[in-house]
Amino acid sequence: MGFLDFIFGKKTPKIENDFFGTMELIHSKEYPHEIYFKCNRHFEPTSKTVDVIIDGDKAGVTQKQIDFFKHIENNYSKICEIVTPLIEQEYRKRINGFKITDFQKEFKAYCLGLPQCQTAPFEWEIHFDNGDLDCAVEMSDFRVKKIHLHGLD
Fold this sequence. Notes:
Blueprint: H1 3-8, E1 14-17, E2 21-27, E3 35-43, E4 48-56, H2 63-74, H3 76-92, H4 103-106, E5 108-114, E6 123-129, E7 134-140, E8 143-150
């Protein structure tokens, strides 16, 4: 790192993608061989912008990753149906009587973590927020693997 990088911070390389727009190329400090991209993208089902973190390599994102993002958008209602009872169950362990009335009104997706999409099943994450609490849901295709709750600790 040069003196100017030390003073002003090293600039994160940016890559342009026709679908995802401007993406930051991030090298993992913990695992130097791992590369991922970070960007913001309009998420059609919520009409909001979501953070997108995409596993990758220096070649950039693939058409399979773009197609998978679209697949998530097209099946968002199904995903919400799948995660609702499981998220409710996890919240009830900490908040007695917690009830989700309308998941898509109460929880908003704010981040997606996409895999390289090389081999199925695709392991990915979706993060939801309801204003007070948020949760990260680890998925394997459209099956829930694990739910992490934040904001209740």
